[in-house]
Structures are given as C-alpha cells and as structure tokens.
Amino acid sequence: MYLTDEQQAILDGRQGELLQKTMETLVRYGEVYEADRMVELDGPVQLVCSFAMAPLRPFFKILGEFKAAGIKTKLPFTADPRPMDFENMGFHGNTVEETVYKKLYSTQPEYEELLKSVGLKDQDAFSCACYFDEIGNTPSYGDKLAWAESSAVVYANSVLGARTNRNSGVIEIFSGILGLTPNFGFMTDEGRKADWVIELKTTKLPRPQILGSAIGFKVMEKVPYIKGLDQYLGSVIDQNAKDFLKDMGAATASNGAVGLYHVENLTPEAKEHGDALIREGAQTYVIDDAELERVKNSYPILWKYEHAIPYKAYIGCPHCSYDQLIQWAEKFEEALVRHNKKRISVDTVICSAPAVIRRFKETPYYEKLTKIGVEIGGVCPLMRVSGMDGVPVITNSNKLRTYSKSRYLDDDELVDVIVTGGGM
User: Which residues does the UniProt record annotate as the domain Phosphomevalonate dehydratase large subunit-like (predicted)?
Assistant: First the structure.
C-alpha cells in the first residue's frame, strides 16, 4: 500500500507508539482487501459501539489510552443509540427487567464520558440514523467516510451518494483518529458497480421492510440496481422517499449484507450514470407480489408458544424520523377509534433520536401518544430486546426480527395487535 511521507512517519512511530499502532491496524486492514492507498475522510465517523457491555472492555481500554494521551478524532463523531433512556422510558414496576438492564449496562455513564473525551459530538449524538438533519452528521455526495453501522452505511452510500465501506467498530474509530481510511471496495468507482438487476413488478408500492428483505436474501453482500421503484417514489428524494429507503436499506443490510444499492432514476449515482453502473453479466431478480408474500411467509417464528399474546412491541429500528413519529401517532389514533379503545393493550416503544424526540415533544402528537400508553425513547431496540430472551416481542422492523426472536408484522397489522392485545 502506498503511504505518503506523513503517513509513513506515523507508521514508523515518529508521532508516538499509540498512533503507530493505530496506523498499523489500518494498514493491515487495507492490505487484506488490497487497498492501494489511504484516503482522507471528508466527514466524521459514526461509532457503532455505543453501549457499555462487558465484552467490549478491551475497546474501552483502547479509548482510555487515547484519552490519557489527549488524542481525539479529527472531527466530532456521532454514535449508535444508547441501550437505556431513563428520561423518557420506565420499567413500569418490572423490577426483573430493570435489574437486567442496569446490570448489563452498569458502566454506561462512565463509558459516555470516555466517548466525550475522545471526540463525541454531544449528548444528542446517539442514533443509528446519524444522517437526520436534527443530528447533523449528514454527508454530502461523494464524501469519503469510515462508518460501521450497517443501516447508516447503506443509507450514506445509496441515498446520499457518499462513500464508505462497511467497517468494524474499532476500525471506524481508528479511522476517525487519523482522519484516514483504506481505499478499496465502496471507496472506488469499480467497487460501486451493480452485480444484480432487481426488476420490481408489483401492483403497488411494497412494504420497504419486505422489499429490502427479499433483495438482501437474494444478493447477499453484492450491489443491486433496482428498476421500477421510481414509479412509486418518483425521481426526487423527498422525505417520504428518505423514510422508505432508510427502512428498505436496513432490511437489505440485515437480511443480507448489502452496503450499497442504486435505484433507477432516483438515487444520486443512478441518476448520474444510469445503466453504466451495471456490470456486464449482472444477474436479474424479478420481484412481484407473489415473491414478496413468499419472502414474508418464510420468516421463522421463534417464540416458545406460537400463539402467545405479545408482551412488548418495538417500532423504530432503525430510528424513526420526525415525519414517521407523526405518522405513527395518526395510525394509533385511527386504530383506537376503529376498535373503540382508549388505550393500547401491548406495551409499546417507538424509538427515535434524542433531538428528534425533543422536536416531537413540541407537537400535540407527543401527548396524544404518551396518553394512550406509547413510550417514545432514544434507545436501541435490539439492546432492549437482548435482555428479554423468551419474551414474545412484535415489531415492524426486519432488522430487529433478524437479530432477535422478535416477530415481524406489517404496520397496519402491528397497530391493530398493539391496540387490541389479541393473541397471534
């Protein structure tokens, strides 16, 4: 790998042993993937390791060394969601659940102070959707990044046209410290070309979670070029398109390992380069209504009792946008009227970024939701569900379904079950 004189000096230890080890790690990582050089980052990193669990102690030690040496990331960074949000959420008298979470994340406050010392942006910086306007870690077209959070990586690459590989958590913080990342994969023009053509032939706009799941299952870690979706979303990435592509992309990344997709006539690179992004010999996958139904029906039910009454519902994995919070408030209001109910019957948490929640609190929708029993918090649903093994949880998130024993329901079905409390 070619290194500049300055980069070589760091590798040779002329700026200290700590930065030497940091550079050596990035160089070895790049060499594994045959990177030709390092490229400078245009934006801050998004730290995936945002929770203080015991298995991450070696990483905490590394951060402690940076702190002791007074070393910070080149730019203030953001991080994935917190595992707990005591300000907005409670345990409703469930002392077992409270004990589990407090034990799992007992050192969270100390860890957050450590993150702050090495460059955390602020206390609002915790969200898997760091690209929301309210958070501010929103890269521009062509920006070079070093992110790890799968749903953020695929969004930045696809919807914003930035460039980042799907890195590991430690690699991303090392990249942020040095302001560098190896040049390979999605950082290169060749690495961003599509290996699959997805032909969408549905009779209506698909659920983003199911469409993303179907694509992820089929293409795995390859790049898909999606044709036919623009007939429903249009050719401009407005807020509706952003929310759809966010949720679809998260499903492609978790049900497969997609880090980049292109949508014909819609996403930036597809609009600029068109079919030139498709590799010669690319395979084709046709998705129609029947295929989407087949994919949805293939999800295994991992509950101990298949027809159990749901205990908990989680919405917002990845985090809901401000517009989505309003839409959920309207959905619940309509469902309560439809079922002649005053409050929901299943404990429900809608997850979003702290700054988005604060903005949402200024609207009448916030009181309407909390009054009927819905909690709105800045947590990571997966971190909450991780302490609830064996408990029947329902969700509209394919990512949460994939990484836990949660059961997937489409939005309308989910709302009805939450309101009525009916068994499955």
Answer: 1-407
d(CA 269, CA 254): 23
Q: What predicted TM-score, i.e. pTM, was given to this entire model?
A: 0.96
The torsion of the CA quartet 90, 92, 94, 100, rounded to 10 degrees, works out to -10
Are 5-187 and 312-420 equal in CATH topology?
yes
Domains of the chain, residue spans = 5-187, 193-297, 312-420
Cα separation of 266 and 271, whole Å?
6
**3-class DSSP assignment, residue 348:** strand
Is residue 38's pLDDT more than 90? yes
Domain 5-187 = CATH 3.40.50: no
Best CA proximity match to 250, nearest among 186, 351, 155, 185: 155
Tens digit of each residue's pLDDT (9 = 90 or more) over 64-89: 999 999 999 999 999 999 988 877 87
27 and 11 Cβ atoms separated by less than 8 Å: yes
Give me the amino acid identity at 383.
M
Which residue type sits at 42? Answer: D
Q: pLDDT tens, 212-265?
A: 999 999 999 999 999 999 999 999 999 999 999 999 999 999 999 999 999 999
The matching CATH number, chosen from 3.40.1360.10, 3.30.499.10, 3.40.50.1460, 3.40.50.1100, for 312-420 is 3.30.499.10
